Amino acid sequence: MIVVGLTGGIGSGKTTVLNYFKSLGVPVYIADDEAKALMHRSKVIRRKLIHLFGEEAYKDNALNKAFLASKIFNDKGLLEKMNAIIHPKVASHFKRWLKKQDALYVIKEAAIIFENNLEHQYHYIITVIADEDIRIQRVIKRDQSSEKKIKAIINNQLSDAEKIRKSDFVIVNNDLLVAKDQARKVHEDILKRIKRK
Ligand code: ATP
Q1: Looking at the domain 1-27+101-191, which fold is it?
Q2: Parallel, antiparallel, or unpaired for β 62-63 and 58-59?
Q3: Which ligand 1 atom is nearest residue 19's CA?
Q4: Which candidate, 156, 88, 123, places its Cα nearest to that of 6?
Q5: Residue 2's CB: how many other CB atoms inside 10 A?
Q6: Looking at ligand 1, which residue's alpha carbon is closest to its atom 9?
Q7: Closest Cα to atom 8, ligand 1: which residue?
Q8: Which ligand 1 atom minimizes the distance to the CA of 109?
Q9: pLDDT category, 73, cuts 50, 70, 90?
Q10: Cα–Cα nearest to 182, from 2, 13, 31
Q11: Which residue ranges make up each domain of the chain?
Q12: pTM beyond 0.90, yes or no
């Protein structure tokens, strides 16, 4: 099975573009969503996160996302420890999911691919980009976040130029219709490449 990675910075529209691929019949997997679901449901993960962050990791029996985000944002060591708890579980969940799919290819959305040198896990990589001011406005609207916070996140992520250089395909999502058109062409191109093999 061909696994295509889909990545992009905050507010670029990864999930929006992913949903378009889904409407074309491509099975899609959102690594962040699965990670969050596992953090809720897995007793082992819960126990390990409480050990790492303290009881505050969960609030009213739900994951305390704001607390965790504030803890890991400026602490790479802690982020790595958290990832070491969660990533292997998501990886095995993805493997099981992949076995059940019946398609020429699947897409896995992951915010972090290049940052952790995980390119080898994918046959092809798509990066979604959008202008920085548009991304900021989208996230302000979606999360009621501040411009300063979003800029700090953007500056913490790999630059679009680097991501583009390392990608097989790029989709520009400033305008949804244009992005959908590009995504359809990428879909056709991937199918062609698979059939040529
Ligand atoms: P993040 O990494 O921040 O979770 P993302 O890259 O997955 O974000 P989306 O969640 O798809 O991005 O999009 C961010 C917000 O911008 C959403 O509210 C979405 O509805 C909106 N959005 C995405 N693309 C467009 C577009 N082309 N036109 C208008 N709004 C858009």
Answers
A1: Rossmann fold (3.40.50)
A2: antiparallel
A3: 11
A4: 123
A5: 16
A6: 13
A7: 11
A8: 7
A9: confident
A10: 13
A11: 1-27+101-191, 32-92
A12: yes
